[in-house]
From TrEMBL:
<dbReference type="InterPro" id="IPR010065">
    <property type="entry name" value="AA_ABC_transptr_permease_3TM"/>
</dbReference>
<dbReference type="InterPro" id="IPR035906">
    <property type="entry name" value="MetI-like_sf"/>
</dbReference>
<dbReference type="InterPro" id="IPR000515">
    <property type="entry name" value="MetI-like"/>
</dbReference>
<dbReference type="Pfam" id="PF00528">
    <property type="entry name" value="BPD_transp_1"/>
</dbReference>
<keyword id="KW-0813">Transport</keyword>
<feature type="transmembrane region" description="Helical">
    <location>
        <begin position="234"/>
        <end position="253"/>
    </location>
</feature>
<keyword id="KW-1003">Cell membrane</keyword>
<feature type="transmembrane region" description="Helical">
    <location>
        <begin position="95"/>
        <end position="115"/>
    </location>
</feature>
<dbReference type="GO" id="GO:0006865">
    <property type="term" value="P:amino acid transport"/>
</dbReference>
<feature type="transmembrane region" description="Helical">
    <location>
        <begin position="135"/>
        <end position="157"/>
    </location>
</feature>
<keyword id="KW-0472">Membrane</keyword>
<dbReference type="GO" id="GO:0022857">
    <property type="term" value="F:transmembrane transporter activity"/>
</dbReference>
<feature type="domain" description="ABC transmembrane type-1">
    <location>
        <begin position="60"/>
        <end position="253"/>
    </location>
</feature>
<keyword id="KW-1133">Transmembrane helix</keyword>
<dbReference type="InterPro" id="IPR043429">
    <property type="entry name" value="ArtM/GltK/GlnP/TcyL/YhdX-like"/>
</dbReference>
<protein>
    <submittedName>
        <fullName>Polar amino acid transport system permease protein</fullName>
    </submittedName>
</protein>
<dbReference type="GO" id="GO:0043190">
    <property type="term" value="C:ATP-binding cassette (ABC) transporter complex"/>
</dbReference>
Amino acid sequence: MADVYLHKKSDREKVIHFVSLTLAVVLFFFYLKHLNFEPLLTKDNIRFLLFGMPGEIGGLALTIIMTVIVVPVSLFLGALIAVMRNSKIFKIPAILYVEVIRATPLIMVIFWVYFAIPIFVRGITGKDISVQPVIAALIAFSIFTSAYVAEIIRSGLNSISKGIKEAAVSLGFNKFQIYAYIIMPLVIKRMLPALLSQYIALFKDTSLAYIIGVIEFFRAATILNNRLFLSMEIFTLVAIVYFVIAFSVSKFARHLEYKWRKQLSE
């Protein structure tokens, strides 16, 4: 009886999801029908949105490059901080780092890196330096994202049973090898959905780099809008691009997660 009820409930949910999706698609196409994309979709405009100004990388290409660079850097820093939080010596500094960064808006971290680093260096060396906006943005995103990644990895570390660690020790692995070759791969596989959500958020948050003059995808769209005055068309296109990339990465990661779980269960 319970199986029949669950089956009916599942069918009902599928119908509701299908109807909702169909309605959303119809409304969206109706909305697109009333927009004029023709002045926007020229060769020069598309090139500007994709690659920014001639002679330098910008636009969507820069957004993707920044994300690709920050992902491994923040993953390494996050893993390091997560391990430090389980250490008696480094626990307090690691907790302070995570709590301070998570309590600070990302835009403030960007400003702090961009303006504070030159002041800090001048105070130590007496030399005036300037930080390139893209470099400052990469540092800020790495610092900010690593604090959240550290908490995700720490949750994964806490889910690893002591038996796995004891078995690794009995096989002659040292502490570094245990974390690098056994624990961290398991943690990343288990925490993939949470890590994915964080990195999709990072991909979208790169738009905040415009505040220090980085001409990434959103800033390029804003510059184009100031020239064409097609706000709805331009930012609708931007939203579609963000959605398509984020959704594609999400589907790929879910497929990867399913494949890994299947391998672990075999």
